[in-house]
Request: fold
Amino acid sequence: MPSSVSIGIIGTGWVGMSVAISTLHSGIAQEVLVYDQREAVAEGEAMDLSHGSSFYPTAAVRSAPPEAMRSTNAVVIAAGRGGRPDETRLDLLRDNASIIRTLAQHFVGYAGVVVIVSNPVDVLTYVFQEASGLPPERVIGTGTMLDTARLRQVLGRELNVASRSVHAQVVGEHGDSEVVLWSSAMLGGTALRNWPGWSAETEQRVADEVRTAAYEIIQRKGATNHAIGLVTATLLKCVLRGERRILTVARVQDGAMGLHNVALSLPSIVDAHGAEQVLVPDFADDERAAFAHSADVLRRAIASIDAG
Reply:
């Protein structure tokens, strides 16, 4: 990791500030810059975070415009409006794509890694990469990292084991067409489908709970923010420390599974250069078909932007 690390966060809503506090507690940055179109809000958030400096590893926090973030090691894009009850992530597309395109212009030629958190994250990852011209591996969407974490939490609860002991993945869209790779899910070297009492009905129930988790939270509190803040801080740590962890992140694909010009999640080796190496897991036939459908959903969403 560089001797002095600076991270920019664009968007100081619920998600952006959860990313900020999780990042500060992780101790991976010596400087955190925050920006929002509401300049006074960004200044206030920076002041508030700074007042807590006795309780996290040493770091300076201040507000700064996007152009001042070009010298940072990584930038997180959390700008845009959030989802509403009964609204899919793709419904956010028209409102947020134009915001992302405008922000991307500030980062043409940027040397760091960009992490996209704003939803719909897959399409906006594509939009930012295309508009900025940055290499695909250096524009990373949080993708199905959160869905995978939700899956492991639910499975841990169902099976009465620690979620960290569950090895299972969600791929494809971060949204309604996401795909749980049940055929390769394992616990302690044992295939989940061989676990006592496991059934197809349980798979469906768990998959539905994971897929609808965000809607359930939004109906109750208006937004999801804490878990995605932790996800993003973990992703930043993997990048800035060059950890080469395998994470289910989104990036514009350039050949994996025959895909081009669409961003979606597959397991990827994440290091200082970004999501540098995409891995193709073993798919059962039904999972491969569901993944192809997920890619088609995202292609149509991208086409709707281009048509607009």
